[in-house]
Each structure stands twice: as structure tokens, then as C-alpha cells.
């Protein structure tokens, strides 16, 4: 208790007089014993948490308390129900006490008190019956003394041993009466200097009523009571040791006993409040009110309904590769630590806000909004009403107490919000603008802490953390190297578990609630990358499933080596409005579009399905069982915490382990488990989906210390890097170009060649960005394939999510299925498809495999065989260049186009015009580039990565690499030149030709292939003639000259399939094609020439190659 707090009591008695009454009473009945006890948090026993339990035990042990059994003693208390004379049901004040685990176990088997007494002979050490009575004075029963300010009560009662006929009567009616049960594990601690015991208990009770007064519900059987399946509660009591107080003892008066009682109360309050300076409930409430007034100072009304959301210390995102990319930093949309960043250590301490209130007293406010008084104050009034963020570090590396608060940010100073300021000093207009760190350092110099007691020793140190600040002469990697070397030095004071990166030139989010700041990053070594999950045991009915592993051989006792385990379902917090669908592809497969939910509270616990890398079994975890002290098989964490159902557990991930054994439970998160079970404050299910998914990505793509210290070894691009498709800001310099390509070019090409109810295959579907064109074309079905699983599965904006969202809004639209695959391998035989699930879908689309909705899914079943005879349209938008990497890839890709397109169907594609690009780069050397800048910002760049001098119209034109940067994408991408003349000739080998003149007229397309410049002119003509509406094109017609320069380097192709070809036998080189296909091609060619009455010579000499091995 603080130095000036006084306890206030109601009732006839106060603490002093009730203690005096207890000491003065003489009890002459040998079977009756006085009992004076203090119970904590009596307003709601559920307020005590596992953390309170652990902290109290640790605190008392640290100051000399001991226990005969730190594992605790098991006991059960059973109270019987009886019928009063008025016919009411009441619980008896006589209870049966079972005081040994074996006795309890036998009771559970027998549920017969008579047989239990026969077995244990009525030994009071095992079984006894006790009557609980209120102590009395001349006015009647003595009521407890409540101290609401410190949340404990002092009660004086009597405990009488019951024997004889009364016990016999209870035992005889045992099976006919309802009972309540309390199953207790109790640790009793004592100290030679204190005439009292501290009992700290874990309690499981019978189920309670759902409404006040929440009494236990009597049941006939222990199984019906739910005592073993209900959640644990925790109890802390001080009980005066009757043998050490009273006459002829050292503690024979109130003056001698009461100080010891108060000191013991203070020890327990200290452990509950997490400080050596416990304060009253009113004081804590006043601190929080002042805090809320400070952070809501701009509002007229101050909210006082306080929850963990009101903790304004920002959270940090997990550092990813995309935040380290060193090339084209100025053009990146994602925050990047190479520019204007600082780095400091992440201490293994407790995050807290340090609040200096209006009276100069210093308090911690933790992330759960619990207040802890530091025992310090300052008399510097100019610094009152100040709020600082930091970490409280209780011990150094050697477990010695240091009580250090390490500050890393300043939010308010003298009531003024400083969050808009940059972190470090900035030069602006030849003047220095002071940053938050400068103000923070000045604050600590002026603070001049004092102890709240008369002791000269200050209870706490307050320091600013060491920051390494990147500048022109010192890169962020130099900073990391300096800091990591500093941390690894044995003289570094405290333990750390990572680094924190903070922008040096930016202000903070000025919110009055907790947020994750996208510009703040945390990095942890791989061994510290963990995820908190809510766990639920896999069950059959209400019983946990137990599985067995049978190992070869026998154990040391000659028994067969069998290990048992349970399976856990790992859940995280998920909100579809924030995090997308939990498993959108599963929704598509089952044709389950979900129901539109406009409620504000959509946060719920769902199984964890990560995106990168995708793993549809990531939510499953097997945990071995081992015996507890009672011989029962239990699950334990690595820190030996007991794992129970509906608990939040921190897991690490071991990639070397077999599937479903990769998650390793580290520790039970008792703080989060309490929040989850108590349902107080925001919903708690462990980490939310974004945090879990980000940590998962970091676990599988770890950033090493070497990367941070050197800047080397950082992957330039990931095979599945979702940054390529990240959303761009609205200020990018090519937004008009993007409008033209998306709203006119692709719309024109797809809609004009489509007929109502056509089916389409998109071999590079991305995130389904062409969905509006498919809808406009009134297609029946679309099958999309993409190399990136994130493009398909992303829970916020992947193809499946976009499709589901559109399905919610529309009554009629094309049905779609999406799979992850590589279109440079064969699609029909599923070599191209990347998982068994997606292979099953693909086979079904082409009419192969089981036609059973329960196996393949309702959504797949509906479209079984849709692509068996090919698709009306094969689409490849802005991706054709990827397949010109080499002849093998090109041949396999064109085989896919051939095998997936019906006769009279179309293949439509867009890409850079390779011939134009080659000519443009002709005078440049390999490694040189052409750049277009706008407003000092690079908007486009193309780098030459080949050194060939010719670009012939044959197979030698394949594998001409270039690297293209465009601001709307935000990073360089490797591409290959496409020789359009060669492509047209090769497509003829596969039974395709460009649409002819008449077809172009019919489709209103300016040629079978042409530059985007032609389409731009076509668009302007249609706008002028009123054929299209300008509002449908956004800013397409307003492309700037530099945008036109970029756009017009692109070319489109519209091919029509005019004959069937055995694509497997086609030799892609223009010099060699199969004999059968050559004859078919020649026949088709002559028929076509006759039809249009226009004879032309073939543009190349035909040769026939004999195919002998078909």
C-alpha cells in the first residue's frame, strides 16, 4: 500500500477490532476451531489469473516463504443439498472434505461415500466432515470486513468437526441428494516471521448459474457437475496460524499481530499489482481517467469505458524482404528501411507507457491498461502530464534486479501532443526542427526523480534507449552491425530478443486507440519468431481424440514402445472485413459465397490458413502426451506448462519436423487466456490473422543477422513475392496508361471476341483483374491459372476473394475456378498444376477424375467437363513474354494454347513488341538502360540484358532478356522479347492464324495484330462517334506523351484456331513441322486463299520432317 493510503471499512467491525475479537474469543469445544482469514479479489474470484497465481508464488518465495510441496496438495470439497421445512432447496453448511488424490480418484470411480469410508476407515487425514459456522458476538453473527479499495475481505468464522449420527445421516442419503463440487490444488506457504499461512489454489468447480448470484448448480453425479471440464479459477488466502497466536505466544495482541498481517497483505498486493508500491483501486482509476483526458484532449466528451484498445503505444509490423530491397527505393510503395530509418534494440522486457500525472507521480500503464505505481515522483511541475513509451526491464542478464525503464519514444510533454514531430532532429529551411528523441532526452535530464518513501534510494532508473541513426555516411546496415555487436558484448546490461526499426523523419499516428504502424518494423532472430494461437483439442463428441504412435522394438522394461498424442486445432483472430476470407479458395470449390454481414463485430476465432507459403494443414498440430505427477497423460509446453483445451499457447515452428509435428508449444499465454475466457475488453484469440500470417512468412523467409549487418544476401525478388501485385497509391505517374490498358485495350479485346455463354481459360490470371471484362462479356465459365499462389489465395484481394465478393453483389455472372500452376508445363495432364487439390480441380474441368461433389466440391462438380472439348477463348494478358525464355517453355506453352482452345476459338494476348524494343535498344550495351522520369521520379525503365546483334524471325529470337520497371508495379521485372513475326509463323504450326480482314471488320478490331497506338486512335474515333462513353474509360484519353511512349511499345494479338492439330507432335522451330500437320496446313491454306480470292506466296519454304517415333 502507498505511504499515505488508509483503509476504510464498513460494518460494526474494522480490521483492528475484528482481529482483537478473534484473539479474545475462547472456544471450549475441542472439535471447534477459530479461523481468521483474508481473501483477495472477493468481488469476483474470476478476476484472479494464472499470472496472479504464478507471480504471488514467486514473490513469496523470493522473500523467504517456503512450502512443503510446491506441486500442491489435491483436495475436494463436496456440499450436499437438503430440503428445508418450507420446502426450499438449500446447500448444507456441512461439507465432506477429501484430502488425498487417491481418495478423490476412488470417489470418482465409486461415487459412494459409504464405500469410500469403508476403504479409508474414516481417517480424518483422508476424509472428514466439517461444518462452517459464522463467529458470533452479543448481537449475533459477525459479518466479514470488506476493503473494496484493495479488494480483500477479512472474515472470522468457526470450523467444527462433525462425527457420529449426523455423518451417518449424510452418508445414508448420499446417492439421493444433489451435490456441488470444488476440486482444489493448493500450495501452502509459510514464513518463520509471520504467524500465518498463505494458501494459493487452483480451483475447478461445479457449473454455475448464468445469472446473478452465479451459484454453483447441484447435481447428483460428479460427471454431471462439470467440475473437471470447467475452467480453472484461482484463489489467494491468508489464514492465521491458530497455534502461533493468542495467549502464551509472541502474537498475543492486536498490536503485535496486525502489523504482520498488513505486511503480508502488502506482499500479496505487490504481486497482484506488479509493483512494490501497491495503490488503491480509486487511485488507479484516477490515473486512468487522467490518461484518457490527456489522449482525448481534442474531444468534447472524454470516454471512460477503458479497454486495452486505449493503449496508444503503436504495434510494429514484422520486417520482410520487401522492406529491405535496395534498388529503386524512391519508387517503392512499401516502407523501406534503407531510407531515413533508425534502429534500436528490442528488450526482453514489459512494454509500458510511463505516465507522469498532474501531481508528479510516475505510473506504468501496460498494454492491458493495468496501472502500476513506480514508487517515484518528480517535483518538476513543468514536466507533469507527460507520456513516454518504453520497456520495463526488471532484471539484467544475470537475473539481478535493475528496475530499468528504457524509453524509446515520447507522445506527450506537459500535456502537449508531440507525436506529429519526427523522431530525430531534421534540417528544414536552414533551421533545425527538434525531434521526439531530443525532447525525450531533455525530459530525463530535468526529471530529477525522488522516492515516495523517505529512503534516499530511487526505486527505478529511467533512460533513453541507444539508437543508431542512418545517414548519408552510415547505412542502416552499418547501424545494425554496430547495434548487434553492441548487444552481443557480455557487458550489455539486459537480454534482448530483436531489433526495432523506426523512421527518423516521420511523425507518429495521432490516434487515441491502439494501432499497428505500417512504418515501424520489428525483427527477431528465427528462434524467437513465434505465433500465439488459441488451441482446441480435436474431439469425437465431447471426448478428446487420443492417437498412438507405434515404434519398432521395446522400451527398457520390455514393453512395446507406444507413444500417445493429441491433435490440436490452431486458431487465430480473424475479421473478414480486415483480413479477407479465411480460406477463399475452399469457398469457391464448394460454391459457398458466404452471407453478407454488415455487423460491426465480425472478429472471430478461425483455423490458421497462411498465404505465403500456403499450407492448408498449418492449423493442425500434434502434441505428445506425458504423465503428470498423478499418472494422468497430459500435454505440456517446452516450459512445462500444462496445456488445456481453450487455452492460448505460444508456438515456435520447426521446419525439419514431419508434417503436423512442426509446431512446438513453448508456453501458455496466461494473460491472453484470461482475457479470452473472461471476455473482458476486446476479443482475444491469440494473434490476429495479419500478425500470424506475417510471422509465418518471416519464419519461412527469415532475415538473418548477416543480411542486416552487411546488406548482402537479401533476395532481390521472391518467386512468389506479393509485392509485385501490391496496390499502388493514386499519385503514380502512369495511372492514365493503366486506365487505357485496363479499361480499353483488354476490355476491347476480350469483349469483342466473346459471345454470350462462352467459356474462357486465362493462363496467367493474376488476381483476377479481368473479372469485370468477363462479366461484361456475359461469359458462362472462366478457368484461371497463375504461377503465384498468393495471387489465387490471398485472403484480402486474391482471385478467389475478388470472385466471391462479386458473386455477393450480382445475381448473374460467370462462374470461375482458379488454380495455382505454371502454364509453361502441360495443363491438361496436370503437370503444370502445383498441388493435389488443384490437380483434382483441373482434371474435373477437363472431364477427368471422379464426378462426385463430395470428393471434388460442389463448385467444381457444377463445371465438370466444361473444358473437355476446349475453351472458346484462351487469354494471356501482359504475360506472353515470360514464355519466350527458351524454346522448351515456348513449345509447351503453345501446346497448352492449342490443346485448350476449340476450333474456331480465339487466342488473345498482349505484350511488349519485341521488334520495337530491340530497335530501341540497338545502340545500347548489355546492362545499359533507357529511363523515363517525371517530376524527378522514375516512372519507367528498360534495361538491356542480352548482347545479340540480330533479332531474326526464327527460333534464335527466343531468350532475349530485358528488365522492365514501371511505377504502377513498383519493382523491376525480368521479361523476354517477343518476335511477333516469328510468333505468327509458329502459331500456324499449331493450327492458328491471325483473324483476317473480314473478321476484323466484323469484330471492330483494327487488325489481327497491331500496336497499342492503333488501339488508342481507335478509342478516340469511337469516343468521337459516341460508340463508347468517356466516363467508362476514366483518364484513358488523357495519356501524357511519356505514357504514350511507353504504351505504344505494346502489341496485341488475336489468333483464331482454324484446324485441329496434334500439338504434342509439333516441332516449334519454323524449319521443322510434322508431315501430317503440314498437309493439313497446306490444305487449309489453299482453301482460305480460294475463299478470299487472293493468292499469296507462303512467307517461308515448307519442309517435311518424317516422324518415326510417335
Automatic annotation (TrEMBL):
Domain MRNA cap 0 methyltransferase span(s) in chain numbering: 732-1058
EC assignment: 2.1.1.56
What molecular function terms (GO) are annotated for this protein? ATP binding; mRNA 5'-cap (guanine-N7-)-methyltransferase activity; mRNA guanylyltransferase activity; RNA binding
**Residue ranges the record marks as coiled coil:** none
Instruction: Tell me which species this is from.
Output: viral metagenome
Please give the Pfam families that the UniProt record associates with this protein.
Answer: mRNA_cap_enzyme, mRNA_G-N7_MeTrfase
| PROSITE patterns found in the cross-reference section | RNA_CAP0_MT (PS51562)
Protein name (database record): mRNA (guanine-N(7))-methyltransferase
The entry's cellular-component GO terms read: nucleus
Q: Which Gene3D superfamilies match?
A: DNA ligase/mRNA capping enzyme (3.30.470.30), Nucleic acid-binding proteins (2.40.50.140), Vaccinia Virus protein VP39 (3.40.50.150)
SUPFAM superfamilies from the UniProt entry:
DNA ligase/mRNA capping enzyme, catalytic domain (SSF56091), S-adenosyl-L-methionine-dependent methyltransferases (SSF53335)
For this UniProt record, the keywords arranged alphabetically read as follows: Methyltransferase, RNA-binding, S-adenosyl-L-methionine, Transferase
Amino acid at each position: 500500500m502507498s505511504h499515505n493510503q488508509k483503509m476504510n471499512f464498513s460494518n460494526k467491525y474494522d480490521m483492528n477490532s475484528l482481529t482483537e475479537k478473534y484473539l479474545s474469543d475462547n472456544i471450549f469445544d475441542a472439535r471447534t476451531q477459530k479461523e481468521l482469514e483474508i481473501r483477495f479479489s472477493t468481488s469476483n474470484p474470476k478476476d484472479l489469473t494464472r499470472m496472479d497465481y504464478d507471480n504471488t508464488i514467486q514473490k513469496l518465495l523470493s522473500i523467504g516463504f517456503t512450502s512443503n510441496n510446491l506441486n500442491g496438495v489435491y483436495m475436494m470439497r463436496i456440499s450436499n443439498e437438503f430440503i428445508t421445512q418450507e420446502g426450499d432447496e438449500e446447500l448444507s453448511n456441512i461439507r465432506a472434505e477429501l484430502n488425498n488424490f487417491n481418495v478423490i480418484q476412488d470417489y470418482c470411480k465409486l461415487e459412494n461415500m459409504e464405500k469410500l469410508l469403508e476403504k479409508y476407515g474414516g481417517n480424518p487425514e483422508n476424509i472428514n466432515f466439517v461444518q462452517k459456522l459464522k463467529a458470533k458476538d452479543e448481537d449475533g453473527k459477525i459479518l466479514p470486513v470488506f476493503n473494496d479499495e484493495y479488494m480483500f475481505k477479512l472474515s472470522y468464522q468457526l470450523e467444527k468437526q462433525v462425527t457420529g449420527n449426523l455423518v451417518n445421516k449424510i452418508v445414508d442419503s448420499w446417492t439421493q441428494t444433489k451435490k456441488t463440487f470444488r476440486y482444489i490444488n493448493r500450495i501452502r506457504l509459510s514464513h518463520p516471521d509471520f504467524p500465518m499461512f498463505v494458501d494459493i489454489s487452483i480451483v475447478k468447480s461445479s457449473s454455475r448459474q448464468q445469472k446473478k448470484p452465479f451459484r454453483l448448480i447441484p447435481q447428483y453425479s460428479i460427471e454431471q457437475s462439470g467440475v473437471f471440464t470447467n475452467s480453472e479459477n484461482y484463489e489467494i488466502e491468508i489464514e492465521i496460524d491458530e497455534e502461533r497466536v493468542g495467549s502464551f505466544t509472541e502474537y498475543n495482541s492486536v498490536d503485535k499481530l496486525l502489523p504482520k498481517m498488513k505486511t503480508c497483505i502488502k506482499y500479496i498486493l505487490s504481486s497482484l499489482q506488479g509493483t512494490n508500491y501497491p495503490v488503491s483501486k480509486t487511485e488507479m482509476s484516477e490515473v486512468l481517467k487522467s490518461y484518457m483526458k490527456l489522449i482525448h484532449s481534442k474531444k468534447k466528451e472524454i470516454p471512460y469505458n477503458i479497454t486495452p484498445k486505449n493503449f496508444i503505444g503503436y504495434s510494429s509490423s514484422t520486417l520482410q524482404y520487401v522492406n529491405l530491397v535496395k534498388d529503386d527505393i524512391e519508387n517503392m510503395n512499401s516502407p523501406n528501411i534503407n531510407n531515413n530509418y533508425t534502429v534500436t534494440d528490442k528488450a526482453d522486457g514489459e512494454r509500458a507507457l510511463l505516465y507522469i500525472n498532474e501531481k508528479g507521480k510516475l505510473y506504468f500503464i501496460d498494454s492491458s491498461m493495468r496501472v502500476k505505481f513506480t514508487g517515484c515522483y518528480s517535483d518538476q511541475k513543468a514536466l507533469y502530464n507527460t507520456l513516454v513509451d518504453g520497456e520495463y526491464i526488471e532484471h539484467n542478464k544475470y537475473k539481478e534486479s535493475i528496475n530499468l525503464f528504457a524509453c524509446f519514444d515520447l507522445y506527450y510533454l506537459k500535456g502537449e501532443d508531440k507525436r506529429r514531430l519526427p523522431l530525430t532532429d531534421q534540417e528544414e529551411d536552414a533551421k533545425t526542427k527538434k525531434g521526439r528523441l531530443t525532447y525525450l532526452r531533455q525530459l530525463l535530464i530535468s526529471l530529477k526523480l525522488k522516492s515516495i518513501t523517505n529512503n534516499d534510494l530511487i526505486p527505478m532508473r529511467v533512460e533513453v534507449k541507444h539508437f543508431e541513426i542512418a545517414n548519408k555516411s552510415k547505412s542502416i546496415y552499418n547501424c545494425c552491425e554496430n547495434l548487434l555487436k553492441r548487444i552481443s558484448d557480455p557487458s550489455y546490461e539486459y537480454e534482448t530478443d530483436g531489433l526495432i526499426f523506426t523512421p527518423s523523419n516521420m511523425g507518429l499516428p495521432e490516434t487515441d486507440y491502439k494501432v499497428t504502424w505500417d512504418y515501424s518494423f520489428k525483427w527477431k532472430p528465427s528462434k524467437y519468431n513465434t505465433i500465439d494461437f488459441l488451441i482446441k483439442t480435436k474431439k469425437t463428441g465431447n471426448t478428446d481424440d487420443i492417437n498412438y504412435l507405434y515404434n519398432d522394438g521395446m522400451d527398457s522394461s520390455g514393453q512395446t514402445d507406444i507413444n500417445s498424442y493429441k491433435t490440436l486445432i490452431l486458431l487465430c483472430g480473424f475479421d473478414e472485413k480486415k483480413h479477407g476470407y479465411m480460406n477463399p479458395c475452399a469457398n469457391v470449390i464448394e460454391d459457398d459465397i458466404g452471407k453478407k454481414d454488415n455487423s460491426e463485430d465480425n472478429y472471430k476465432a478461425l483455423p490458421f490458413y497462411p498465404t505465403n507459403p500456403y499450407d492448408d494443414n498449418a492449423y493442425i498440430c500434434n502434441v505428445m502426451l506425458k504423465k503428470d505427477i498423478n499418472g494422468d497423460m497430459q500435454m505440456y509446453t517446452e516450459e512445462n506448462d500444462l496445456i488445456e483445451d481453450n487455452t492460448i499457447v505460444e508456438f515456435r515452428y520447426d521446419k525439419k519436423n514431419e508434417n503436423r509435428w512442426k509446431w512446438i508449444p513453448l508456453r501458455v499465454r496466461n494473460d491472453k487466456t484470461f482475457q479470452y475466457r473472461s471476455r473482458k475488453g476486446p476479443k482475444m484469440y491469440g494473434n490476429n490473422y495479419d500478425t500470424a500470417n506475417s510471422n509465418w512468412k518471416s519464419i519461412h523467409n527469415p532475415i538473418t543477422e548477416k543480411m542486416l549487418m552487411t546488406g548482402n544476401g537479401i533476395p532481390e525478388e521472391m518467386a512468389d513475392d506479393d509485392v509485385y501485385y501490391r496496390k499502388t497509391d493514386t499519385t503514380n505517374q502512369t495511372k492514365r496508361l493503366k486506365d487505357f490498358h485496363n479499361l480499353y485495350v483488354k476490355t476491347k479485346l476480350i469483349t469483342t471476341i466473346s459471345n454470350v455463354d462462352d467459356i474462357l481459360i486465362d493462363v496467367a490470371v493474376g488476381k483476377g483483374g479481368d473479372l469485370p471484362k468477363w462479366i461484361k462479356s456475359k461469359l458462362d465459365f472462366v478457368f484461371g491459372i497463375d504461377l503465384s499462389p498468393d495471387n489465387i489465395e490471398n485472403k484480402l484481394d486474391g482471385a478467389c476473394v475478388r470472385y466471391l465478393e462479386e458473386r455477393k453483389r450480382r445475381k448473374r455472372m460467370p462462374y470461375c475456378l482458379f488454380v495455382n500452376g505454371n502454364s509453361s508445363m502441360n495443363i491438361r495432364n496436370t503437370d503444370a498444376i502445383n498441388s493435389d487439390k488443384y490437380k483434382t480441380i483441373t482434371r474435373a474441368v477437363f472431364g477427368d477424375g471422379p464426378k462426385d461433389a463430395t470428393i471434388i466440391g460442389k463448385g467444381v462438380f457444377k463445371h465438370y467437363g466444361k473444358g473437355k472439348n476446349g475453351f472458346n477463348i484462351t487469354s494471356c494478358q501482359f504475360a506472353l513474354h515470360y514464355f519466350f525464355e527458351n524454346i522448351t517453355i515456348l513449345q509447351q506453352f503453345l501446346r497448352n494454347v492449342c490443346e485448350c482452345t476449340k476450333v474456331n476459338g480465339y487466342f488473345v494476348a498482349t505484350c511488349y513488341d519485341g521488334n520495337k524494343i530491340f530497335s530501341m535498344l540497338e545502340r545500347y550495351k548489355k546492362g545499359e538502360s533507357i529511363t523515363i522520369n517525371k517530376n524527378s521520379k522514375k516512372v519507367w525503365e528498360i534495361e538491356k540484358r542480352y548482347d545479340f546483334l540480330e533479332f531474326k524471325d526464327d527460333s534464335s529470337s527466343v531468350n532475349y532478356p530485358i528488365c522492365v520497371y514501371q511505377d504502377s508495379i513498383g519493382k523491376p521485372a525480368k521479361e523476354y522479347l517477343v518476335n511477333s513475326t516469328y510468333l505468327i509463323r509458329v502459331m500456324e504450326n499449331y493450327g492458328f492464324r491471325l483473324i483476317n480482314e473480314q473478321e476484323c471488320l466484323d469484330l471492330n478490331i483494327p487488325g489481327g495484330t497491331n500496336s497499342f497506338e492503333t488501339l488508342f486512335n481507335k478509342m478516340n474515333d469511337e469516343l468521337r462517334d459516341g460508340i463508347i462513353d468517356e466516363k467508362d474509360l476514366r483518364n484513358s484519353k488523357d495519356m501524357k506523351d511519356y505514357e504514350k511512349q511507353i504504351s505504344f511499345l505494346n502489341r496485341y494479338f488475336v489468333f483464331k484456331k482454324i484446324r485441329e492439330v496434334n500439338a504434342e507432335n509439333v516441332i516449334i522451330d519454323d524449319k521443322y513441322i510434322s508431315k501430317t500437320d503440314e498437309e493439313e496446313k497446306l490444305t487449309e491454306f489453299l482453301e482460305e486463299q480460294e475463299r478470299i480470292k487472293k493468292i499469296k506466296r507462303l512467307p517461308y519454304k515448307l519442309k517435311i520432317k518424317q516422324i518415326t517415333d510417335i
